[in-house]
Amino acid sequence: MFQHNSGTALPSQRTEIPFLLQVILVLLLALAGTGCKGEIPGVERPEYSLPLDVDISSNEPGRYGGIFVTAESQQPRTFNPLVAEDAYSSEAIGRFLNGLTFYHPLKEEVVPELARSWEISEDQKSITMHLRRGVRWSDGEPFTASDVMFTFKALFDERYPNRYQGQYTIAGEPIGYEKIDQYTVRFSTARPYSPFLYVIGFIGILPRHVLYDAYEQGELLQKWSIRTAMHQPGELVGTGPFSIRSFRPGQRILYEPNPHYWRADSKGRRLPYVDYLITRYVQDRNTETVLFVSGQIDVSAITPGDVVGVNRNSELHDYTVHHRGPATGIRFIWFNQKPGTNEQGRPYVEPHKLEWFTNKKFRQAVLYGFNREGLISSVYFGRAELLHSIISPANQRWYNPDVRKYPYDPDRARELLASQGFVYGADGNLLDQYGNAVVVDVYASEGDDITPQILSTFRENMRDLGIRVRVRYLDFGTLVARISRHFEYEAAMMGFTGGADPSGGRAIYLSSGRLHLWNPGQEEPHTEWESRVDQLVYASEETFDPDERVEYVHRMQEIFSEELPLLFLLTPHTYVGLKNKWRNVRIPSMGSVIWNIDELYLEPEH
Amino acid sequence: MAVFLIRRILSAVPLLFGISVLVFILMAVAPGDFLDVARSQEDIPAEYIERMEEEFALGEPWHTRYFIWLGNVVRGNLGESWIYRVPVTELLAQRVPATLVLSALSILFALCIAIPMGVLAAIYKDSVFDRISSLFAYAALSIPEFFLALLAVMFAAQTGLFPIGGLSSVEHEFMSFWGRMADYAHHLVLPTIVLGMGSVASYMRIMRANFLDYIRSDFVTTARAKGVPEGRVMFVHVLRNAINPLVSASGFILATLLSGSILVENVMNYPGLGQLIFEALMRQDEFVVVAAVMMGCIMLMLGNLIADLLLAWSDPRIRLEKN
Amino acid sequence: MVKHLLQEILRRPLGMLCLSVLGLLYACTIFSQFLAPYLPTDQDLEKAYHPPTRIVLKDWRPHVQIYEQVDPAAARYEPVHGETAAISFFAPGREYRLWGLIPAETRLFQVEEPHRIYLLGSDGTGRDVFSRLLYGAQVSLSIGFIGICITMTLGFLLGGVAGYFGGRVDFLAMRLVEFIIAVPSLYLLIALRGALAEHFEPEQMYLVIVIILSLIGWAGAARIIRGMALSLRERPFILASEVMGQSSIKVLFRHFLPNLASYLLVAATLSIPAYILAEAALSFLGLGIQEPGTSWGLMLQQAQELKVFTLNLWWLLTPGAAIFITVITFNVLGDVLRDIVDPRQQMIKR
Question: How is residue A73 annotated by DSSP?
Fold first, then answer.
């Protein structure tokens, strides 16, 4: 950091210098001359018979071979699904472990994975799952109902706290699980719960024969760490398309096909086609894009601003930048509406400000006065759209396009403010009916390059409305502590990544939710509309009729867009670059681009 | 000698104590904690977070946590990383070799370039070479390191001569032993240059100044008068002495060896300690941060000790017991 | 002494050059409100990533060329043939307070709204890079000065006291110095900033950063000054003044300070670049000055994007050039100063 350390000096180097210099020069010359491109040999594929309940891919049959290289910004923290908290770990785990069900991003519905079929009982409270027969773990041991039982026993074990315990607790009761026979299990829930089939697919089924001893000894959470992946990758036994061949921390992970994988193509050849799947860890987003542009990785997300630049090289390295449509996540600014006081008796929000923030018309006026369209055309190069609802338009199945919208209209904003008793002072500042100047502190987390641009524009736009906005950037932890523990803030900006099924958002939607940001953890719904939302959420979780569920979720979105507890910002369009040599590519509107990596194959001329 | 060593080592103990306390206080004062990331995810249930708070003793005041930690350290256990669920020592050990190699190489690179250039600049003082080299030195000192790294990445992408970041290529493990070595070397070229550039400049200026000092000194004049060949005068008498005084601060180099460079590692995607420690700092993965800081301190003290020993060995006028 | 030093610097062409470059930079900084056509926060979302505007002569008066956006996806602008807007000099504009005190409204140059003059192009929300550079200089160019004042004062006080009194005071002070040096500075910096950030307004972040940087930086200076003080203490004139019964404080300031002044000056000049670069590095990590504030480091960090290279938005890299020029000038000036104060370069050997 400080380059002028006047103490900087060197130890005596007498005779070594010329020698070392020589060595380095020789090395350099050798490198520049020969380069060091190694060839990766093809993978050996042992011929094991296909399982009885093999899943036949409906896509065109391909051919074996090829190496698929992807990049992630961070490495997995663990390979143990009970420990994993972050998306990067989950992704790596998903390569070698399977769940019982799988959410198909193109069909937008739950499809069988390790469970081949299921039946829902009359009272909709128990679900019987039939497992695929003849499936083997990557080490050759058979997969049976005992593995499923073991997984759920471990998951609900008091000694091993994990995120699934809460997820699999429905209406206050942990889900029930019992083994019917070797290939049948039955789950039961305390009340009908329609997202069950979606949720049950989250946990990767664990191999009992590998982990049972550790489970008994209370060391399950210490198993399958990155240390295992480095030194004994063979211990990471799964049913997924790949096995881990090697893992180099901070550099990459190398997967090879699982010889016992349970999917095959219509010609009876076992998937996956690729010889190796490599995920490189590239922390800097620019470096990742540079790697893609120079042809060294096969797939990469491209930001709106880089699309034009990246396209210039598409001929040279034979790739295409695909437009995926709006991003899945949502981003918003919100005002703190939490009433009450902290332990010292100080109100979370000053009473006169709380009055503005709880006034729906005030929130609407602010959104009318925010030039989001201008942001789209400048910061996003026109490659984004306004966000109108609490569910992103990327989630086509659940998104309601007919909610109330708030285009940029500063005159409308001023009218709305005037109708609520706000007046302008001599200096052009907005005053409320008691003469308080409208000043708002907005908190945001630093370290995202778009956030400051959005907030600077927000600040300028609000100044035009006479509202003084002060933006304060905190590091992420501080921000979270403020909004979820101390509640001492006026407004903040944040985003959520968003999942496929709205049941993932219940912590936000429900008035009792932990992330019901504007007023979290309410014992009783504080407002009439919040209680309506609560009812809609519960109703949507209880019905198994898909259309009825969509209807409830649509109504919920209408309420949010009318009441505007969150001021939705915008959703950038996402782009993904992919090399043209890969076949069977099906890009969904949300989720991973290479969700069907087991079906991808190299086009014949390569 | 032995007394000196023991005294030095003993005096380090309170320092380490102080620093570990400081780290714990700073971590406690810093807002938020390790679980904040989990708290912000919509699908992580509150019960799980409570369980974790209990397990990591995050509800306790810092001094309680400090004594728990201290108790473990005394028993030889530096704790476990909360992010990775792996012993801290092992986590750090994964990254140490890469950082060590890069730092050593960049210092070596700096020395190999700076010493000859500094010597030449001193011998041909005020010549064109002197001017150009000092211009280079000023320029090298004035570019922010991270910016140089970015330019290096762009350079690699444009020319294709060097890999774009990383420490080894994807084909690495299918290569022969020598192939792997060459692969490493190929990847190390750009980071070495980027990291070494700043030091080249400062070493060069120091070298030039010292060399000039000795050229003018009496013993050189004497040697010349006695008819010692000019080359021998320069390279045996002057160079040897000009390097010597720099030993005094060589401890600093040892300290930097393990600190890694967050900025360069980030941009050039180098799997070193810097990345890991930065992540631990930002996520408040307490035991990793403490261990990393302690490691840095120990390296520095070790470096200072070695520098003092070297100095005593090379310059008999200095006696160890004095200070 | 100052006068003598100035003469010596001006006698050398290199010194003269450095001094004039720095003089120009600081003059621009002081009068940035007058020189900049816009506020650093003035946006124009219609003109994002606008290239530098051409200046043309029309009727013997300078006009600014008007552009239209032809491809929003690539931020491409083409000049509209024949359409220009006159530049008015010393004309009144939006009111401002020079140095926060004197109300004024005259600006060096501006053009009539809705047209804009972008001498160095615009950024992602259409803010004028030239104006931001000028305002950013207020932070980047002063951060070193303030920092160095704190560092040198602390270093002199602690180092001087330690060296002068010796014994137990010296022992304690040096342990403190070792303590500071032993903590890896970047980690300390990040931790301190995290701890302090919440308690300060964004406008004060600047001060927080300077204080943190100097709190870490003073230890090295203290160690060197202590060494010099140790040798000074044995000099006859110090002994004499002690014998004559002057108080320690007096000795410290009357005799030590003037004797160490030249060292302090050179060290200060050579250390300022470290502050400027450290601010840039902090900003790069997202830990520096924050919006709506502006600094060269922050601007450079915002330009760390691939599109700057692929879309050739070179003007966004001008803060990098500004940092480069400033740092190089301080370095060269520091060397010139060292030559003057200490022609045999004793200092480097300590």
Answer: S
Residues of C in contact with B19 (CB under 8 A): 179, 182-183
Q: Which residue has the tokens 């020189």?
A: C35
Are B280 and B122 within 8 A, CB to CB? no
A571: β partners? A385
Comparing C-alpha atoms, which of C199, C86, C33 is closest to residue A482?
C199
Q: What separation in angstroms does the CA of C166 have from each of B255, B320, C136?
A: 28, 18, 44
Residues of C within 8 A of B141 (CB-CB) are 273, 327-328, 331
pLDDT in tens, chain C (350 residues): 667 778 888 888 888 898 899 999 999 998 888 888 888 888 888 888 899 988 888 888 888 888 888 888 888 888 888 888 888 888 887 777 777 778 878 888 888 878 888 989 898 888 999 999 999 898 888 888 888 888 888 888 888 888 777 778 888 888 788 777 777 677 777 777 777 776 777 667 778 888 888 887 788 788 778 877 777 777 777 777 777 777 777 777 777 777 777 777 888 888 888 888 888 888 877 777 877 788 898 888 888 888 888 888 888 889 989 999 999 898 888 888 877 876 554 443 33
Dihedral sign of CA atoms A170, A171, A173, A179 in order: negative
Residue C348 and residue B206: Cβ atoms within 8 Å?
yes
Of B166, B248, B282, the CB nearest to A9: B248
Question: Are the beta carbons of A531 and A516 closer than 8 angstroms?
Answer: no
Separation CA A533–CA A67 (nearest Å): 48
Q: Count CB neighbours of B141 within 10 A.
A: 24
Interchain CB contacts (distance < 8 Å): A and C: 121
**Choice among A287-291, A293-297, B226-230, C45-49 with the minimum mean pLDDT:** B226-230
Q: Is B113 left (phi over 0), alpha (psi -120 to 50) or beta?
A: alpha
Instruction: Confirm or reject contact between C186 and chain B (CB < 8 A).
Output: yes
Measure in Å the smallest separation between the Cα of B98 and chain A Cα atoms.
10
DSSP 8-class letter at A437? B
- How far apart CA C15 and CA C336 sit, in angstroms, is 6
| Dist. CA B39–CA C319, nearest whole Å | 38
For residue A577, the Cα-to-chain-centroid distance in whole angstroms is: 19
Per the structure block, which two tokens stand in for A485? 């523990």
The verdict on C211 touching B (C-beta cutoff 8 Å) is no
- Which residues are CB-neighbours of A441 under 8 A, at least 6 positions away? A469, A470, A471, A472, A489, A490, A491
Residue A280: which H helix or E strand, with range? strand A276-281
- Cα B214-B220-B223 angle, rounded to 5 deg: 160
Cβ proximity of A567 and A367 under 8 Å: yes
Q: Do B262 and C186 touch (CB under 8 A)?
A: yes
Q: Is B256 on the interface with C (CB under 8 A)?
A: no
CB within 8 Å: A283 and B175? no
Q: How far apart are the first and last CA of chain A?
A: 48
Q: Residue C222: its chain A contacts at CB < 8 A? A: none
Contact C291 A473 (CB under 8 A): yes
The answer, yes or no, to whether the previous bond of B316 is cis (omega within 30 of 0) is no
Nearest to C180 by CA among C220, C226, C225: C220
* B and C: number of Cβ contacts within 8 A: 99
- Residues of chain C in contact with residue B212, where contact means CB-CB under 8 angstroms, are 345
- Chains in touch with A (3+ beta-carbon pairs under 8 Å) read B, C
| ipTM, two decimals | 0.83
Kindly report the nearest CA distance between residue A429 and chain B, in angstroms: 34
The tokens for B311 are 């100095």
C chain contacts of residue A282, beta-carbon cutoff 8 Å: none
pTM summary value: 0.85
- Residues A224, A236 contacting (CB under 8 angstroms): yes
